[in-house]
Amino acid sequence: MLAAVLEDFGRLELREVPAPEPEPGEVVVRIHSCGFCATDYKAIRGLRRNVTFPFIPGHEPAGVVSAVGTGVTGFAEGDEVIIMPSGYCGVCSQCRVGRTHYCERCFTTGGDGPDDVRPGAFAEYMKTSATCLFRKPAGVPFDTAALTEPLSGAWKGMIQYSEMTVGDDVVVIGVGGIGLLCLMVARAAGAGRLIAIDPSAYARTNALALGATHAVDPSAGDAREQVHGILPEGPDLVVEAAGPIEAVRLMVDLRRRGTRWNVFGITTHESFELDGGLTHFLEGRMDASFGTTPLAMQKAIRLMETGLVDPGNIISHRFPLSAIHDAVDTMGQPERNKVIINP
Prior knowledge:
By secondary structure, this protein is of the alpha/beta class. It has helices at 38-45, 93-96, 142-145, 148-161, 177-188, 201-209, 223-230, 245-253, 276-282, 294-305, 324-331, and strands at 2-8, 11-16, 26-36, 61-68, 80-83, 86-87, 107-109, 116-118, 125-129, 133-135, 170-173, 194-197, 214-216, 237-240, 260-263, 285-288, 315-320, 338-342.
């Protein structure tokens, strides 16, 4: 099969590799669509160093089951499916309480995090555990279905962890792909005033088109003052979906009494300061969210199949697998949103 194989940082090779065969309890999926995540891009460019070579990236796939291993009863050849990249054992203490993304024997397909990293979906076929499959709703296109995993992360952070409620005034800092999904979830969940903060005019325009009531340019003046010009009493919920430490510091500055705040976008080990007494008397609540779970995946699928959230609206570019290097170049451009690979 054709696959994009990362042999070293900056060395992504498009070549033929052996097609996978399912072991007991596993399935092989013919990949139709796979989202191109920023973590994939960082690995390819060497900005993320926790990579073991050779490595096939791609952890946001959807496709059709092409082969099933012995013992698999829930799926059959020809089933249209969505794949969760986070594999789990189901029997450790973390899995037993529903925290499958903390699994003591977890693996990932095409992603990062655990020690056990398996070949991903920048390939014509991919193998995984049958427990990682979800049925794709018939009315949801493959390209849209491929965004289930990032949408599930947005639902998990906004709704399950930060407990956003109808009428909440919400600020989303950073409205690239994941920030837009957080914004769309907030809109579907009944946000009151919904403010997008981003220095990119392209990103702010997208945010307004997808449901933001206001957009703030932090490079045009004090972002806190601009937000308080819209929300004099401050926000109920602030989500940092940007990545840079400056976004986290802005989130801290936007707190008022009772504000919930979610450290969602930053993955680098950088520091920010908190005034202990102020944090105590503000009585806010900090959450963070990474990865996904079967519950979050199922919720994201429900959002798509009911039309409450259409993640396909954030797709800006599509490339065949044979043009993977063009896709990599596009990932480095400022005016792009979600990139989809179609093996």
